[in-house]
Specification:
With about 120 residues, this protein is mainly α. It has helices at about 5-10, 15-20, 40-55, 60-70, 75-110, 110-125. The chain has one domain (about 5-125): Multidrug-efflux Transporter Regulator, Chain: A, Domain 2 (Orthogonal Bundle). Helix 4 packs antiparallel against helix 5 (about 75-110). It is elongated. The chain starts with a helix and ends with a helix.
Length: about 120
């Protein structure tokens, strides 16, 4: 699959894919005889993983570290797992904060007009 097709599949730009590869977010993509990137199923899995992690707020630095560890082979399995656990815990904290914010917004929206009329009436007194 060429870079344009991959970009369309994952709704990102070709420049983003090149950037991901350049900074080590995805392993180097093989090239065809003409020198163009030729994404394999494994490459597509990497793009999907990185996009998913980035969409959920995992840092570029953590992902670069993960990919670098992965490329070092089986001896880094425990380190990679620890990194994933750390990122999962961070994500769980963010979700908790966002859940609290959602609840606060729901509470504020619930009966908003009545609450604001009461507040404004009290303020005018």
């Amino acid at each position: 699959m060429n870079i344009k097709e991959v970009a369309e599949k994952f709704n990102i730009t070709s420049d983003t894919l090149r950037y991901y590869e350049r900074i080590g977010l995805i392993p180097p993509v093989p090239r065809n005889d003409s020198g163009y990137r030729d994404y394999t199923e494994i490459d597509l899995n990497w793009v999907y993983f990185i996009k998913c992690m980035r969409d959920s707020g995992v840092s570029v630095e953590a992902l670069i570290e993960y990919v670098a560890l992965f490329q070092q082979g089986a001896k880094t399995i425990l380190s990679r797992k620890e990194l994933l656990i750390e990122q999962r815990n961070e994500l769980a904290k963010k979700i908790g904060v966002m859940q609290n914010t959602l609840e606060k917004l729901d509470d504020k929206i619930d009966g908003y007009e009545e609450k604001m009329l009461k507040y404004q009436d009290e303020k005018l007194k």
